[in-house]
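Data card: per-record layout.
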Amino acid sequence: MAEAGTKMRELQELLQDESLRTRIERASDFDAVTTLIEEAGSAKGYSLDKEWLYGFYADVLFARAPTTFTESELMDVANGMMSQDSAPKLCHTASCGGNHAGCC
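The structure for this 104-residue chain is written out next.
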């Protein structure tokens, strides 16, 4: 099983693809998002498993509304704005500037 940092780098690379980001934004639920990411990752030989993706999805989406990924959040991940050393959390996005201001 790939370590969390490796998985985050794999996800970041996948999210460089604008078409994939658009399909994720339009996905109706977690299963649809997971399927999109797993298929894209599998095509590149990545090991983004459902459990890790669920943790990522839950940390970002269940912490605030709306419960969908925004283009800005997807670009933050794609551009390495989220930490590779810890589990992804809302505080690693632009919402608090990564300053852990009580958001996690």
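Known properties of this structure: The two ends are 26 Å apart (CA to CA). Confidence is low (pLDDT under 50) at residues 85-90.

See the next section for split statistics.
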